[in-house]
Fold this protein.
Amino acid sequence: MQVVEIAGTGGPEQLRLARRATPSPGAEEVLIRVAAAGVNRPDVMQRQGKHPPPPGASDIPGLEVAGEIVALGTEVRTWRIGDRVTALLAGGGYAGFAVAAAPLCLPVPQGFSWVEAAALPETFFTVWTNLFERGRCAAGETVLIHGGTSGIGTTAIQLARAWGARVYATAGTADKARACERLGAERGIDYRREDFVAVLADLTAGRGVDLILDMVAGSYVERNLQAAALEGRIVTIALLGGERADIDMSLILRKRLTLTGSTLRQRSVAQKAAIAAALRSAVWPLLDAGRVRPVIAATLPLAEAAAAQALMETSTHIGKIVLTVAPP
Ligand SMILES: NC(=O)c1ccc[n+]([C@@H]2O[C@H](COP(=O)([O-])OP(=O)(O)OC[C@H]3O[C@@H](n4cnc5c(N)ncnc54)[C@H](OP(=O)(O)O)[C@@H]3O)[C@@H](O)[C@H]2O)c1
């Protein structure tokens, strides 16, 4: 099969087309003929040597695919050959075929293209487990989403809105801030021109926000503490702005704040399967009804994976970047 592999640590030019043997599914896995594969920031970090695949995972990048099931492991009872699925992977998505754990596959939502379906798993699993399970996002609460136009951010804004939360989002340009508003944010904040702590203090009459989803960390940690309301929760999912922070701990005590965070890729199949089950009952009906839809920023053929990752690194995209895979 055709794959895109990482020749060595470095820039997008390290991504190159190659041929590998088509993998075989294990007892509780399925083999998917990939029609489309999502591109995620962790793929870029893997190429940069900052995010190695967990033990046992494919070295080929790619954390999510959509396609047709073409082979079943001996113990798989939940899927049939020919089923159209989208799947969360620990790696191996930039390929003609990919092996996925059966419980980490979900049906392609009604009316969704392969490209739209492939854009779902990584961001929806991440947003569900962080914003809802850890962050306890609830109707009527105020939520701040940093990186509002990222793949994660565009998903988080829509789901928080669908849950009845009041959403604010930050982004790096005025255009991107307006894009956040079109997705359902009450106010997009252009963080290069505006101080999100001051804007939110104004918008909430000094109360602050109940929940913050943060992918920046670094200097944002202290500012998140300032922007949070009493009993606020702050969930960190990435460290784009730096791993270390100098913070005023008294803010945590005085406001009774909760700081938490998590990563998805290292978790066990059983833990990810629990997220898949929750998504299927709570979120898939919204997708089937067309109430929530992934935002597709760009679609490129698999052979142009380097250009896709280079585009991601410009951070000019709004939403998801997806690779399309031609039938073999
Ligand atoms: N914890 C988990 O389980 C998990 C799972 C998946 C992804 N993630 C993380 O979540 C983040 C978003 O992922 P994604 O795939 O949605 O990525 P993405 O679409 O590339 O979005 C990343 C966005 O972060 C913003 N940003 C803010 N500060 C930045 C900085 N210092 N450097 C680069 N970008 C910065 C950029 O928007 P502006 O230019 O508007 O600021 C950029 O568009 C990534 O960091 C990824 O590693 C975490």
About this structure: The mean pLDDT is 98. The first strand starts at residue 2 and ends at 6.
